[in-house]
Write a structure and sequence with these properties.
This protein has 367 residues and is mainly β. The protein is built from 6 helices and 17 strands. A 14-stranded antiparallel β-barrel has the order 1-2-3-6-7-8-10-11-12-13-14-15-16-17. A two-stranded antiparallel ribbon has the order 4-5. A hairpin with a 4-residue loop joins strand 2 and strand 3. The chain is globular, with a radius of gyration of 22 Å. About 2% of the residues have low confidence.
Length: 367
């Protein structure tokens, strides 16, 4: 699976445990849930984020993200984004004393989306994505980029503001079927049976606004995420251990892996819900969850925190996040920081991320 489309690109959601399917609309919504753009309250928006990657180990790996949108009218919004992931410079040598052959692996994707308000409270969106991945390195210097395409289908519901006894409230619900598309093949000379699945996923989230007055608001959010990729049945890299654990023979293991490689991307989406070798219990472990809270003062200053959890047997990503946002006129700056709580080191651990966004044009008041 490619790196570029499996990383949260901006600092606002990065400070909230990577929730985003049902949070309030912003410029970077095209990644989290493109249908939120239909509820944007300005005519134009543009944002830019640079994310250092593995900064504690290497200085030149980073991801750059540029996103924007234009409201065509009060119901229709188009958006676009460009994401570029650079893996820095890598020196290749066949022998220790050979001169270095310097390569610069990278990935990028270009997105376009269309969001439509189907009612005053509900919108849907479709997004298309072109992906190019130049990660192939071999002795023949054949580094032809692997390419493919993907699409998203999302929906977003935002309720009206309702008065409660001590505060007003508003809730949101969102979903996003993301990165649906054909496998990506890094070697055109080899059968597609060796191609890799894209990181297709299903996001489902909800949020609630506690609106205390015109100046103070607290938003709480919860999101579930399920990878829509079939579960590998066995790992043939260690046949001895599996045989000791009760596998009938190594040929059965090889056959299972061969069958897995034959699965198409459409079949893989449906298989991903019921193919875990450990049954329903293992399927539940393939679901990650995020929880977050944001305090917003006068739409000018925000404080955020969040938590992300993944099962220890499915990747073990577990971390707290925190951050802040500052807005002056049309300019907004968001900052986030991540602290890992598992034994698996996170590439963003102890790294500050910054996002810079601009919102232009008249405000729509028909929401």
């Amino acid at each position: 699976m490619t790196l570029v489309n499996n990383i949260g690109p901006d600092s606002k959601q990065g400070a909230m445990g990577d929730v985003g399917a049902a949070t309030d609309p912003d410029i970077n919504s095209i990644h989290w849930n493109g249908s939120k753009l239909a509820f944007s309250d300005k005519k134009f928006g543009l944002g830019f984020t640079v994310t250092p990657w593995l900064r504690l180990l290497v200085p030149d790996i980073n991801m750059s993200y540029l996103a924007g949108y234009i409201k065509l009218n009060s119901k229709q919004t188009i958006g676009g984004s460009l994401r570029y992931f650079s893996l820095g410079e890598i020196e290749l040598r066949d022998n220790a004393y050979d001169p270095a052959n310097v390569v610069k692996p990278n990935e990028f994707s270009i997105d376009g989306s269309y969001a439509l308000k189907l009612s005053d409270k509900f919108s849907m969106s479709v997004a298309g994505r072109f992906i190019s991945s130049s990660l192939k390195i071999d002795s023949n210097n054949d580094r032809t980029a692997a390419t493919t395409f993907a699409f998203d289908v999302s929906g977003f519901f935002q309720s009206e503001q309702t008065a409660f006894s001590e505060f007003d409230g508003r809730y949101r619900i969102g979903f996003n079927f993301q990165n649906l598309g054909p496998k990506i093949n890094y070697d055109a000379n080899v059968s597609d049976i060796n191609a890799n699945f894209l990181p297709a996923q299903m996001k489902l989230g909800g949020s609630f606004d506690f609106i205390f007055d015109d100046y103070n608001k607290i938003t709480t959010s919860l999101e579930l995420n399920k990878l829509l990729v079939p579960t590998p049945q066995v790992d043939s890299s260690n046949l001895y251990d599996y045989n000791q654990d009760g596998a009938t023979n190594t040929q059965d293991i090889r056959d299972a892996n061969a069958d897995y490689k034959k699965i198409g991307w459409v079949s893989g989406i449906f298989n991903s819900f019921n193919d875990a070798p450990g049954g329903f219990g293992e399927e539940l472990k393939e679901i990650t969850y995020s929880a977050a809270a944001e305090y917003l003062y006068q739409d000018s200053f925000a404080m955020r925190l969040g938590y992300f959890h993944e099962s220890p047997v499915k990747g073990a990503r577990q971390y707290f996040t925190l951050g802040a946002g500052f807005k002056y006129n049309v300019v907004k700056i968001d900052v986030s920081y991540l602290m890992s709580t598992s034994k698996v080191q996170n590439p963003l651990e102890n790294t500050l991320r910054f996002s810079l966004t601009f919102n232009f044009g008249d405000k729509y008041d028909d929401y």
